[in-house]
Q: What sequence folds into this?
């Protein structure tokens, strides 16, 4: 086939009917609006990062690590808080993930349709309860209820480091805070997992069923492998919430600043967010700057965890 | 081994909720032969096929009434576990559906691992090879058994699904338009395979392609509906040659000669 070039014999002044001579107003308005919204994300994020960095500079400069003279150390102040934050969030996830996946599977594959809808609605409602309410509930009602369990764990499983130590009532310990955090992250993990499980291709499930798989075998061979990436992503969303959760931890946990693994002991741990909330009203000068520095650490921590989550999701996606 | 028995279907009514989709099917399906089911879209031939291994009822609200006897056992008897029915009556779907997270080898062995957990590695290897040979796929994949099944071409994927189905050694293999998503060469490969498989298995195949029905089957059944919203009926079933040359029923003749559908 030969290519035929169109000779440019038309007079240049004549409007080319194939070309768009004027910009369409709606198009350009929409494009500016959406670009603007996109940029706003970057601006906000940058503003927060710059604020945290610049405001924490006084503390960084005045610290032992930099000046060599001051009586406080950035590392000694921040690391126990990081430890407490991560430990509380991790325990919350360990409690919440199996339950959330169980509920999600029940809703997506086992429950009768009407029950599933109602249950899904109730799970969403759990997410709407403000954290201060969870704090009240946890601190006043749940903590005394958990006491016998803690005593049991401490007495019979005390050789496991986590359950060791010397727990004393009231059990305003890290374990209680984690249990409440678990309740708080449960809805988000459940909701996302449920959506992913529901998206399992029907054909895949039928393939397993037609081979003589039971319902559980179908879930194990098809639904869980398909949903794995989604469950990881959901868990990371939950982890993000657990790391930053302030009110519930503040209202339940009796604070301390150690690297103790004894989650049943009272007054051993504190989280970054709860620490900031409890101290920021009275702090000033370098103390305030130090609090902001811990905020910066939390900011970076959630960033890193999100990056890891994205990496895991990308890696564990269905292989094409 | 006892002589294989036919599948006896008696007065089978098939429902989706309140909707009667297929009415009053009574038919005997011969063992170790290929039975093709043809008919216009929506006439219930796929629905009927899916009642033969109780896959119909996995759709919410769907159920069937009547009797389907396989090997002398009514599979709709209260005491029968549908899981056990499906282990004896395998199914190949319209679109190839290998398990995406599994290798070729694991795909073939998927059903076996469900049915019989403990299997030695050498036995598993033999089984995978035999099933893949049985599906005429061995030579194409023997060097990449550990690669994902999704990496194969459409026709190869469909043969992988057939290998997966015959690896559990069913008595019956149901095929629901197995070639409708395939090119002519792949279709030919599957049709050749069907010819070989009928030595060992009872095969029921639903197809939209009448040439395919006449090429692969020994018996052909024709389903039809009187109109939208009406239930489908099995109009006629006979030897394929007779169905395509001299059918008893005028509806069959009209359909086969291309006067409608």
A:
């Amino acid at each position: 086939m030969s290519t035929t070039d169109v000779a440019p014999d038309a007079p240049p002044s004549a409007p080319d009917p194939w070309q768009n001579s004027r910009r369409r107003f709606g198009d350009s308005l929409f494009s500016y609006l959406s670009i603007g919204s996109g940029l706003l994300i970057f601006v906000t994020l940058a503003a927060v990062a710059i604020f945290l960095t610049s405001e924490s500079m006084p503390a960084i400069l005045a610290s032992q690590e930099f000046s060599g003279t001051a009586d406080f150390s950035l590392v000694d102040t921040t690391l126990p808080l990081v430890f407490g934050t991560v430990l509380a969030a991790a325990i919350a996830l360990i409690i919440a993930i199996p339950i959330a996946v169980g509920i999600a599977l029940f809703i997506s594959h086992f429950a009768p349709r009407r029950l599933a809808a109602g249950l899904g609605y109730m799970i969403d409602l759990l997410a709407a309860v403000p954290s201060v309410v969870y704090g009240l509930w946890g601190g006043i009602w749940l903590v005394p209820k958990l006491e016998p369990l803690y005593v049991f764990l401490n007495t019979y499983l005390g050789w496991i480091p986590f359950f060791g130590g010397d727990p004393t009532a009231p059990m305003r310990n890290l374990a209680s805070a984690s249990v409440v955090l678990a309740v708080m992250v449960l809805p988000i993990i459940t909701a996302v997992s449920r959506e992913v499980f529901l998206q399992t291709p029907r054909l895949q499930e039928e393939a397993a069923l037609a081979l003589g798989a039971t319902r559980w075998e179908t879930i194990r061979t098809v639904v869980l492998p398909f949903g794995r990436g989604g469950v990881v992503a959901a868990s990371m969303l939950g982890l993000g919430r657990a790391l930053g959760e302030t009110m519930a931890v503040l209202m339940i946990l009796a604070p301390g600043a150690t690297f103790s693994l004894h989650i049943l002991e009272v007054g051993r741990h504190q989280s970054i967010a709860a620490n900031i909330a409890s101290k920021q009203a009275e702090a000033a000068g370098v103390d305030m700057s130090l609090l902001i520095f811990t905020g910066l650490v939390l900011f970076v921590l959630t960033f890193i965890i999100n990056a890891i989550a994205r990496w895991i999701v990308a890696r564990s996606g269905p292989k094409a | 081994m006892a002589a294989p028995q036919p599948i006896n279907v008696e007065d089978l009514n098939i429902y989706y909720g309140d909707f009667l989709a297929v009415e009053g099917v009574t038919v005997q399906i011969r063992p170790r032969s290929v039975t093709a089911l043809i008919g216009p879209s929506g006439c219930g031939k796929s629905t009927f096929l899916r009642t033969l291994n109780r896959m119909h009822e996995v759709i919410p609200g769907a159920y069937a009434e009547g009797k389907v006897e396989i090997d002398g056992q009514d599979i709709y008897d209260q005491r029968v576990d549908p899981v056990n029915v499906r282990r004896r009556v395998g199914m190949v779907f319209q679109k190839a559906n290998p398990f995406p997270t599994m290798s070729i080898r694991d795909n073939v062995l998927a059903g076996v691992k469900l049915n019989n957990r403990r299997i030695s590695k050498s036995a598993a290897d033999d089984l995978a090879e035999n099933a893949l040979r049985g599906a005429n796929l061995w030579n194409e994949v023997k060097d990449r058994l550990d690669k994902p099944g999704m990496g194969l071409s459409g026709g190869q994927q469909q043969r992988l699904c057939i290998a997966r189905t015959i690896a559990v050694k069913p008595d019956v293999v149901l095929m629901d338009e197995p070639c409708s998503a395939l090119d002519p060469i792949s279709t030919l490969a599957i049709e050749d395979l069907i010819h070989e498989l009928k030595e060992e298995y009872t095969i029921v195949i639903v197809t939209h392609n009448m040439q395919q029905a006449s090429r692969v089957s020994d018996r052909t059944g024709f389903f039809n509906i009187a109109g939208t919203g009406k239930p489908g009926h099995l109009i006629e079933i006979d030897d394929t040659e007779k169905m395509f040359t001299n059918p008893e029923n005028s509806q069959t003749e009209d359909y086969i000669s291309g006067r409608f559908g």
